UniProtKB/TrEMBL annotation:
This is Amine oxidase domain-containing protein. Pfam families: NAD_binding_8. Gene3D superfamilies: FAD/NAD(P)-binding domain, Protoporphyrinogen oxidase, mitochondrial, domain 2. InterPro entries: FAD/NAD-bd_sf (IPR036188), Zeta_carotene_desat/Oxidored (IPR050464). One of its GO terms (molecular function) is oxidoreductase activity.
């Protein structure tokens, strides 16, 4: 017997995989909602419809793509386009993470810099060429900080150096990073305290559910390397 707790995409995916595995077993899925299939509308206390499950996901989820293909569902018919992610601190909006594969040249120009209309029209649809990770992420995100000073943003260069060093293919170097926590990594490569506290730390709490001092530097470097759409 198998009991799966949670009727989200992960739970239904596990149930589907077990059913298709050929295992002769009884599979039970339990969820807090009386009907986690989505057939019964879930309403708020004021009577408004609410989606209790996942509202979005990153691009590289091949299991979702495969399921849509199996059900002959056109993804453009059921999913909205990918959108930017916003990062907030107690002081307000700190930065916006773009959809990197669709970043336009005009997105990299700070709003405080005036652009003549003729120039803006000429480059408005120009997509920024793909750059190696994490250089591409840094270039695309750099101008989108709302509050973090320029000097703090510039300290992101340390992350670029760390990622290149860490993921260069040398297993012994990767082991060294794995023994180091991310907090020590940020100190070693001189990232500013403001950048870490107001942007990187919240990103890690969302992506890896732990603060830098509890995370392997190697794991953090891998997150930064693959964090792109």
């Amino acid at each position: 017997k198998f009991v799966i707790v949670g009727g989200g995409w992960g739970g239904w995916g596990a149930a589907k995989a077990l059913c298709e595995s050929g295992v002769n077993a009884e599979i039970t899925l339990i969820d807090a909602l009386p009907d986690p299939t989505g057939n019964t509308p879930y309403l708020s206390p004021t009577g408004k419809p609410v989606e209790a499950g996942t509202r979005g996901f990153w691009m590289d989820y091949p299991n979702i793509n495969k399921l849509c293909a199996e059900l002959d569902i056109d993804e453009d018919d059921v999913f909205t386009p990918f959108t930017n992610s916003s990062f907030y601190s107690p002081d307000g909006l700190e930065a916006t993470a773009p959809v990197f594969s669709k970043t336009k040249l005009t997105d990299l120009i700070p709003s405080t810099i005036p652009i003549p209309d003729v120039v803006s029209d000429a480059i408005s649809d120009t997509i920024v060429p793909a750059l190696p990770s994490p250089l591409g992420q840094i270039v695309a995100t750099f101008p989108l900080f709302e509050r973090i000073p320029l000097a703090d943003r510039a300290s992101m260069a340390g992350l670029l150096l760390a990622t290149i060093d860490c993921l260069g293919g040398d297993e012994s170097v990767q082991e060294q990073y794995d023994r180091m926590n991310a907090h020590d990594l940020f100190l070693k490569f001189r990232l500013s305290k403001r950048l870490v506290e107001d942007f990187i730390k919240p990103t890690l709490l969302v992506g890896l559910f732990k603060p830098p001092e509890e995370l392997s530097a190697l794991v953090v470097m891998e997150l930064l390397y693959y964090y792109a759409l």
